Amino acid sequence: MIEPLESGHPQDHEDAEIGEARAVVDAAVREAAAAAQHWRHLASFDRGRVLMSIARRIVADLDDLVALERAETGKPAPLAAAEIIGAAEYFEFYASLVHLPIGAVLDVRPDLHVYTVREPFGVVGVITPWNLPLNQAARACAPALAAGNVVVVKPAETTTGTTVALARLAVEEGLPPGVLNVVLGPGSTVGSAIVEHPLVRKVAFTGSVLVGQKIGRIAAERILPLTLELGGKSANIVFADADLDFAATEAVRAFTGKAGQICSSGTRLLVERNIHDEFVAKVVEAARRQRPGHELGPMITDQQFETVQHYFRVATDDGAVAATGGTVALEPGMAEQRFVEPTVYTGVTSDMRIAREEVFGPVLAVLPFETEDEAVAIANDSDYGLVGGVFTADISRAFRVARAIEAGQVYVNSWSTQSVQMPFGGHKASGYGREKGIEALAHYSQMKSISVYTPSS
Ligand code: NAD
To answer: Which of 101, 107, 210, 295 has most Cβ atoms within 10 angstroms of its Cβ?
Structure first.
């Protein structure tokens, strides 16, 4: 007979898990560090070719990667495919920028030759969330590698498949072993072990504000540079002079895209009061065309499904009115698959939780405004500042409002027309540092100034 194992003290168990996580991370970080000099000093053309091959391979393996990602997230196939093509674009874009970042020669004094160079950090830790697994990993890994760093990446516990596949296919496409490593496991142990590891010289984190704060505390102790890509509660402002039919479909795309599980969702809709009722009717009509199980994917995790339902209760308790939705999907069997109805709340004021907190689901809070100043004030009355939108036919107002919105990206007369060329990142609690664009390279490299004394004789 097998004797039951004596269960140890819970603290012993926790200590063992932390010890195990540290050992796993240590092995990966050391592997990366061993590959760092080779990768860093490879001719930039060679680095670029490898990154370009990775881009092509992602496209070639699209069907397999989509299947992997769908198995873990349940996303509609076209959505998963678009995100994975986006992942390839990150590698393609940064492959074309490997010759950057460049330095400058500074005219300081005749007997000094002064110049600047940008250098990689060495080992970069990348920690990603579950909502766009491969896309988010590529968003950080591609510029980090292009800038000559080596990477240890940890995906969210529930969505590991495509990140592991990325590391495998990258080696098959010529990335030297050790340059891109994946570690798996819980954030509280494996994730924090990455942030704490002394050989990790930079961390790029995408996820919640709460975890961003925890990482920030460790980073403060270590003087560790961070890129923090956190949450949002982004406002979309619609003036009466806008093309209302188009604005309504865009407003719906803004909060139902990826079933609302995207940091850059437009989850607050600010509508000029004289068109409020007419515009809300258009939004409701367009929202109802986003059918759960068809255009609208499921909540990716059980926990997120619970969270969205929790916010349905919060909104109602606080006095908001569901103009549509406010429930799990009502068709038989849909709720079991974690589908919720696209939801539009009216009667919302800025102090309500539904207007302040990130739900991370297809849930919209509509707030009326009277003047341009009031619209901007409501938009900026948020702890977050990730993105924003403005719809108007008045071009001067469009420029004014775009400048006045406190957010890292603003869209005029469309929603979320993002691209890899556009720097992306938050103001306020939405984070700091930038991903995407040429700017990301500056966040994956550090500046050195060199002064050479050159006396005339
Ligand atoms: P999360 O913060 O719970 O987890 C993100 C990652 O951090 C996971 O890999 C997790 O395992 C890890 N982690 C958890 N605790 C950790 C710790 N103590 N130390 C180190 N790592 C730890 O976020 P989530 O729920 O997976 O994702 C949803 C959040 O991500 C939302 O708030 C969303 O807005 C945000 N997000 C932001 C962006 C952006 O670009 N700004 C993009 C996507 C998602």
So the answer is: 101
Ligand 1: residue whose CA is nearest its atom 20 = 191
Does ligand 1 lie within 6 Å of residue 160's CB atom?
no
Percent of the chain with pLDDT over 70: 98
Assigned CATH for 14-230+431-450: 3.40.605.10
- What pLDDT sits at residue 101? 65
Cα(432) to ligand 1 centroid in Å equals 15
Pairs from 159-162 (Cβ < 8 Å, separation ≥ 24): 159/69, 159/72, 159/73, 159/130, 159/133, 159/300, 160/72, 160/133, 160/184, 161/68, 161/69, 161/71, 161/72, 161/133, 162/65, 162/68, 162/69, 162/84, 162/133, 162/134, 162/137
* 230 within ligand 1 shell (Cβ under 6 A): yes
Task: Give dist(CA 236, CA 251) in Å, integer.
Answer: 7
pLDDT of residue 8: 59
Regarding the domain with residue range 235-420, which homologous superfamily does it belong to in the CATH classification?
Answer: Aldehyde Dehydrogenase; Chain A, domain 2 (3.40.309.10)
pLDDT in tens, 212-266: 999 999 999 999 999 999 999 999 999 999 999 999 999 999 999 999 999 999 9
Residue nearest (by alpha carbon) to ligand 1 atom 12: 187
Question: Token digits for 149?
Answer: 């760093």
Q: Residue 10 above 80 pLDDT?
A: no
3-state helix, strand, coil in the chain (%, to 5): 45, 20, 35
pLDDT tens across 408-439, in order?
999 999 998 889 999 999 999 999 999 999 99
To test the pocket of ligand 1, the residue of 83, 127, 192, 416 to mutate (highest count of ligand atoms within 8 Å of its CB) is 127
pLDDT tens profile 328-338: 998 888 889 99
Annotated catalytic residue within 263, 341, 358, 406: 263
Residue nearest to atom 43 of ligand 1 (CA): 263
d(CA 195, ligand 1 centre) in Å: 14
Q: Is 229 a catalytic residue?
A: yes
Q: What is the whole-number distance in angstroms between the Cα of residue 31 and the centre of ligand 1?
A: 25
